[in-house]
Amino acid sequence: xxxxxxxxxxxxxxxxxxxxxxxxxxxxxxxxxxxxxxxxxxxxxxxxxxxxxxxxxxxxxxxxxxxxxxxxxxxxxxxxxxxxxxxxxxxxxxxxxxxxxxxxxxxxxxxxxxxxxxxxxxxxxxxxxxxxxxxxxxxxxxxxxxxxxxxxxxxxxxxxxxxxxxxxxxxxxxxxxxxxxxxxxxxxxxxxxxxxxxxxxxxxxxxxxxxxxxxxxxxxxxxxxxxxxxxxxxxxxxxxxxxxxxxxxxxxxxxxxxxxxxxxxxxxxxxxxxxxxxxxxxxxxxxxxxxxxxxxxxxxxxxxxxxxxxxxxxxxxxxxxxxxxxxxxxxxxxxxx
Length: 337
Prior knowledge:
By secondary structure, the chain is mainly alpha-helical.
């Protein structure tokens, strides 16, 4: 058994722009719960980064810091094992971001595939907030401040990690030693969960999410709205599993994989109705979400408890991140008192 100091360091987090949903659950939350015993895990509530495209709505971001923290605790993230902190209260991250911007060009930031895709998604064109464009440097600051060696991300975020490692190599070359570690990507074993309307991205703004405290009524409504195989017109008709949103969700959430494979085979050969398949999914999601919803409702009654967890975690992370900043300043030969 490894000692605590030998465990790999993980940094992960979320932008607090809305409640978390099932896409977050399969993409990161489930693995975070599993990793908190084997890793030093820090979770960053990235409120400063959220403001890069929500600067006109500070209250939205502020409100959702508590909402996302509630989601963390409700799914089983243990604050005695995982440190939860608030990005905007870690001043060392801002200094590191400014330092790192000297190790990257504007052209390189603009070439980052993740940044390009997000700019297109938001319709910024050339009217890009500078903070948004510079996010790869800010993310590098977040990761390196904790000296994280493992970063759980989706495939679309791999270019961000590559750019972080580029900055790490440049800083290390400047310092003349391996001061900062490079980090490795930890991909989820489930690909991105689509919205229940079949669109590629589950997004609150699109109204196609199932949040982690959804009521049984909301779950039933979402499952009933899911598209299946448009050519599966009668129960006896053979149906297609690939591209069928209901089966996509079953792949992600059904715990009985053997029964699921039998269900798929039955659907493919015909004789299995969409209603039966949806009923199975509805039951699985209700069983998954009910205890999360109940725990969240209990936690919500004591906001001071949540705030205390955030303050304790943030105070701890201030020490960690400031120590890294001081080490980098010393390595670069910067003057400090």
